[in-house]
Amino acid sequence: MDILIVDDSAVMRRVVLKSMQLSGIPLGAVHQAGNGQEALNLLEREHVSLALVDINMPVMDGVELIDRLRGDARTADLPVIVVSTESSPARLASVKAHGVACIKKPFSPEQLIDAVMGAIGGANGSGLDVRAACGSGPDF
């Protein structure tokens, strides 16, 4: 599964990546962006199966990124998980209205994998049953 991690913190991008690697989900290409605009630019060239997105970023925040993704036919159905410290009910409601899962930082690897499994429905675009590949859950 090819993924995109969008966060203005390089450290947090590494934490998300490490959690994904520990999950047992077979990863393909891993793309990273420091803000929403970088993510959109990257998605012009690359296809991903899942985006993990922070809300609070410079240039273009995660809310606007998600709005733009949902407004583009090529990315309208892209599974997105918000990984953020955001606690504003209004902002969280605005992203959840787009069918986006949310987990709060700090998170455990188990919380992340549960959100990923929910977002992709247990299978990625290639038909690989991720739940079967990972067993009943991660063993951390």
List the helices and strands and how they pair.
Elements: E1 3-6, H1 10-23, E2 30-33, H2 36-45, E3 50-53, H3 62-70, E4 80-84, H4 89-96, E5 101-104, H5 109-120, H6 130-134
Parallel strand pairs: 1-2, 1-3, 3-4, 4-5
Task: Describe what this molecule looks like in 3D.
With 140 residues, the chain is α/β, with parallel strands linked by helices. It has a single domain, classed as Response regulator (Rossmann fold). Helices cover 41% and strands 15% of the residues. The chain is built from six helices and five strands. It has helices at residues 10-23, 36-45, 62-70, 89-96, 109-120, 130-134, and strands at 3-6, 30-33, 50-53, 80-84, 101-104. It has a five-stranded parallel β-sheet, sandwiched between helices. Helix 1 crosses helix 5 and helix 2 (36-45) runs parallel beside helix 3. The relative contact order is 0.19.
Which outline best applies?
globular
Number of strands: 5
Second-tier CATH architecture: 3-Layer(aba) Sandwich
Unreliable parts: 123-140
Strand order of the largest sheet: 2-1-3-4-5
The biggest sheet, with number of strands, parallel, antiparallel or mixed sense and barrel status, is: 5 strands, parallel
* CATH homologous superfamily placement: Response regulator
Counted up, domains total: 1
- The percentage helix is 40-55%
- Our count of helices gives 6
If you consult CATH, what is the topology?
Rossmann fold
Radius of gyration: 14 Å
What is the percentage of strand-forming residues? 15-25%
Oligomerization state: single chain
CATH class: Alpha Beta
